[in-house]
Automatic annotation (TrEMBL):
The keyword Transmembrane applies. It comes from the Eukaryota. One of its GO terms (cellular component) is membrane. It is found in: Membrane. It comes from Fraxinus pennsylvanica. Keywords: Membrane, Transmembrane, Transmembrane helix. Coiled coil: none annotated. GO terms for biological process: defense response to other organism. This is Late embryogenesis abundant protein LEA-2 subgroup domain-containing protein. InterPro entries: LEA_2, NDR1-like. It holds the Pfam family LEA_2.
Length: 189
């Protein structure tokens, strides 16, 4: 036996160990690229209801109180944390109301509902010339939007910054006292 020759038994053992390590590395790599890869959480508007409406013709006052429920779904095998945010209601491009969304952590593969009450005091919108045209049709169209910024984390090492949002077109029917909504969700990377 030469000085640097490796005994046969040890050689087999080293090769077997190397194969095992390589196999584990491939498994970990495949898992981290597939099911463990941080995915986009999604925010959806589940419902919009007209909680309260009060109209006084003179002096003009219109209080439209909306109840908005959005759900935040986290598809990850790790938690999704989002920062404080704000939901906005606008009327023909003008901000009309907002409501705070408090920061939260959605557990792995979990979902939370956020319920908001948004009071739209329409009085200040009456300076918009289109307002009176819309008002006489009995239908006021608003848009709502909510955006969440956060971080999806799997095993503390796989992290991804996430922005997800939902917007709705809302039609408030003043006489009928109801609201129709068409919502969509999207994702920004
Ligand atoms: C509008 O209506 C809501 C719900 O009843 C009420 O809480 C709020 O104080 C009202 N706001 C105004 C300015 O009338
Ligand atoms: C988020 O909002 C809550 C309640 O409004 C507040 O207590 C907290 O300090 C805010 N957190 C951040 C990071 O701004
Ligand atoms: C308000 O939205 C409804 C539904 O999308 C639409 O039919 C209507 O024309 C809109 N009204 C105005 C004034 O834009």
């Amino acid at each position: 036996m030469g000085c640097c020759e490796i005994p046969r038994g040890l050689k087999i053992c080293l090769i077997a160990t190397a194969i095992l390590i390589a196999t584990l590395a491939v498994v970990v790599l495949v898992l981290s690229l597939t099911i463990l890869k941080p995915k986009q959480p999604k925010i959806n508007t589940k419902s919009v209801t007209l909680n309260y409406i009060k109209w006084i013709p003179f002096p003009f006052h219109l209080n439209v109180t909306l109840g908005i429920v959005v759900s935040v779904d986290n598809p990850n095998y790790g938690s999704f944390q989002f920062d404080n945010s704000t939901a906005y209601i606008s009327y023909r491009g003008t901000a009309a109301a907002d409501a705070p969304i408090e920061h939260d952590t959605i557990p792995a593969r979990g979902s939370h509902d956020i319920t908001m009450t948004v009071v739209v005091i329409v009085d200040s919108l009456t300076s918009n010339p289109s307002f009176w045209v819309d008002f006489t049709t009995g239908c006021l169209n608003f848009t709502s939007s909510a955006t969440l910024h956060g971080k999806a984390t799997v095993f503390k090492i796989l992290k991804k910054k996430v922005t997800t949002y939902t917007t709705c077109d809302l039609s408030v029917y003043i006489q009928e006292q109801n609201v129709a909504s068409v919502c969509k969700s999207n994702v920004k990377y």
